[in-house]
Amino acid sequence: MVDKIQDKKKQKKERLEQAAYDLFSEQGFSETSIDQIARRAGVAKGTFYLYFPDKEALLNQVIFKCSSRIFKEAMQESRFKQLDDWVERVIVLIDYVIELFKERPNDLKVINKNLSWSMVGDQVEKGDGEGVDQEFAELLSYYLEQLEGRGYERKAAFQLIFMVVELVGAVCYSSLVLGQLGPIDELKPMLFETVRKMIRN
């Protein structure tokens, strides 16, 4: 009986998250109301507040889940590549993220300009992010260890990953969503070379 109640609660929360994702990608965060989210999710407005204190908290949860899913998928892909040069493995990861965004522009619209690495990374490191995936946490540790093995302190490794992710996210958003800078495939060589310099230096 308790399990069924918990399952129903989980389903309602997931419906709210999915409704928010859909509405944020369709019309933007500021144009989306809690009423609209509740209606799309098929729940009463009061139910919303059982799971989230406000719309910003829901946005953060949606961004966290979306970002961590993207990171996990890309990290898995790059780790399986048999490349001797670890930096080139990072480039494969970035290229994979870009291709994901080309296929799923709504993810980029919801995340809005960056992958919110500070939120994802901090929550994984502290272990306090709701729904933190253990496999993703292990993949993140692998990348941090690679940087530490190259002389970075852990804090500096986090900062470097943050800067790389912010750069990639901003370039993708400008190109794929705003139509600025030029086609993303034309920007890739310069972007990749910039990341190589950031990591190797």
TrEMBL record:
Keyword DNA-binding belongs to the record: yes
InterPro entries in alphabetical order: DNA-bd_HTH_TetR-type_CS (IPR023772), Homeodomain-like_sf (IPR009057), HTH-type_Tx_Regulator (IPR050624), HTH_TetR (IPR001647)
Protein name: TetR family transcriptional regulator
Transmembrane helix keyword on record: yes
Residues in the DNA-binding region annotation: 33-52
Upper taxonomic lineage: Bacteria, Bacillati, Bacillota, Clostridia, Eubacteriales
HTH tetR-type domain span: 10-70
Transmembrane portions of the chain: 160-181
Domain of life, per lineage: Bacteria
Keyword entries, A-Z: DNA-binding, Membrane, Transmembrane, Transmembrane helix
